[in-house]
Amino acid sequence: MKIFSAAQIREADAYTIQHEPISSVDLMERAAAACTGWIEDHFPPAHPVYIICGKGNNGGDGLAIVRQLLEKGYEANAWLLTGNASADNLANQARLEQRFPGHIHPLNDVQEFPAIAADGIIIDALFGTGLNKPVEGWLAGVIHRINDLRTRHTVIAIDMPSGLQADSSSLHTPVVQAHYTLSFETYKLAFMLPENAVFGGEIHVLPIGLHPDFLTQTPARFHLTDQETIRTIYQPRNPFGHKGTYGHALLIAGSYGKIGAALLATRACLRAGAGLVSAHVPGCGYEIMQLGEPAAMCVTDADMQHSTHFHLDINEAKYNSIGIGPGLGTHQQTALALEKLLDNYPLPMVLDADALNIISVYPYLLYKIPKGSLLTPHPKEFERLFGATANQFERLDLLSRKSVETGLYILLKGRYSTIACPDGSLYFNPTGNAGMATGGSGDVLTGILTAMLAQGYTPKAAIILGVWLHGYAGDLAAARLSQEAMTAGDIIHHLGDAFLQGI
Length: 503
Known about the structure:
Layout: E1 2-3, H1 6-19, H2 24-42, E2 49-53, H3 57-71, E3 76-81, H4 87-99, E4 104-107, E5 121-125, H5 137-149, E6 154-158, E7 180-184, H6 197-200, E8 202-206, H7 212-217, E9 222-224, H8 227-233, E10 248-252, H9 259-271, E11 276-281, H10 286-292, E12 297-300, E13 321-324, H11 332-344, E14 350-351, H12 353-361, E15 374-375, H13 379-386, H14 392-406, E16 409-412, E17 418-420, E18 426-428, H15 441-454, H16 459-481, H17 488-493, H18 495-502
């Protein structure tokens, strides 16, 4: 699913008006009807509704919602900013006054904000996506008033919480903190970033019939990975395939006290479909690996009895993919071994955890990584690699620039994990949950991604599919076990169901 900018959404509206064709006020009626239907499905008419309306088209949506709710038997009123209103806003003022006179009240100062009944619902229709600067003055006071009331009343934002800018940071500015946001047709970029999590609440994207030609033909830099995309990427098994068909993957992982990371990555790699899996671990982990995952082969450094960390050469030529980093440690000998691996292995690989931490200490190694490789930093690892930023929009820009500059696919992990591609596109992953914020979850992801590369997926397909499956398996595990009780191993156990139910 494409994520359009605020400017592109305005273009989509204009294109729909011209090519459907439909009048702008009737398109607004359609958007309002989608919101009214959602409200009707979730809140009975016993709740009085207070809609705070601006002077633009977002306020016009709000006025139309008031009229539609009144038609359905709700007690609904609008508090409207006075002044120069948009044409469609004026049209909806007239429609409301003609059908239900006396339901529009002026709002010229925060002191005119309505007194909200105990079971009342507040709907924010002040600004929407048209805002391009921070809210100031008494209007900021209106936003603060709404936020003060949210602990006792449900707050619903139309299109976007007022004060939130779609395509740039809104940190340190007043923004409505909604329980629900009813947005139109596509997600907004602002919804994808953690710094805005407190504002949107539950995001519901409602279809309003924007012209499909615009949606399909207009290019977008940002995407939200959906099931349709995953099904186009997934490659079904060849009935005549054998274990050699699906590649030989190598996991270089583990150090003294962290062999569990190697075990998790190896199990995940097997479960994600690699034909053959070898685990290269220090000698101290040999018996653990042999007993813990008999389906995998185990390779150790030559001085097996004394080895506690990765530090010697490997025969990397026989592997279709390599994943390195989980539990690896950052010993100086390990750094030297990593550099030699990067010098000699030409294929895309997966680098995570301590492999990334080593590169942050020796930045020149970044430019030795084979093109098309997959890097999977969490936010702190990303900051150590590439530096701090003032906000998450700047971090998103830095993420994309580094991917283009290095030719690497970089996954910034978190809610809506973000995949930056060397072609400049970015993909947000919607699967996954807070229960996956547990030790070993990243090791599992490394194993899955290494398996995808081993099976012959392109790097872009491998990272989009692998991240989606990892999150979906986590969602299935949480649904069965709870977010609190699930562990990284539970993600592995639910990978089979993720393939069966998700693709």
